[in-house]
Backbone:
């Protein structure tokens, strides 16, 4: 009885000994196809997230300058600098010019137009300007931030990037 049990166990071990090379190659080929399809979508999603992040950073800086101008009863200036290949910066300064706040945004994001500053006055007014946030990935939809003459700040998904 013991000898026949050993033969069955040995036969089972030999017949189910793992994966063949062809099975592994087919599995790797299928995974490569899936990754090839997913990679462009992931890079677009990351670029969209960069634009959203830069937009919210600029909106926060503009809102902070607006509130600080009323609280301190002095003009507050918001200045952005795209910094070329380095991380972009946004600073909020008062009239002395003391830096009230400083923000950074991703180097692949750019803020337009060429007028890179806006002044919020204690009378709750500012120069009307529209900022467009673009990304180095041109497949991404740009966002616009509009500052009205009465200091209103709106954020919309529109605009064009060169």
Residues:
């Amino acid at each position: 009885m013991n000898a026949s049990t050993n033969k069955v166990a040995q036969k089972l071990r030999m017949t189910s000994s793992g994966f063949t090379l062809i099975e592994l190659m087919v599995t790797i080929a299928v995974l490569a196809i899936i990754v090839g399809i997913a990679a462009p979508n992931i890079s677009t999603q990351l670029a969209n997230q960069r634009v959203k992040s830069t937009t919210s950073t600029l909106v926060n800086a503009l809102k902070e300058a607006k509130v600080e101008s009323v609280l301190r009863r002095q003009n507050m200036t918001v200045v952005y600098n795209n910094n070329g290949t380095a991380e972009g910066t946004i600073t909020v300064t008062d009239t002395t010019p003391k830096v009230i706040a400083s923000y950074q945004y991703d180097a692949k994001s750019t803020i337009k137009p060429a007028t890179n500053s806006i002044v919020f006055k204690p009378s709750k007014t500012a120069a009307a300007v529209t900022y467009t946030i673009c990304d180095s990935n041109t497949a991404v939809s740009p966002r616009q931030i509009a500052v009205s003459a009465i200091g209103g700040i709106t954020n919309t998904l529109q605009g064009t990037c060169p």
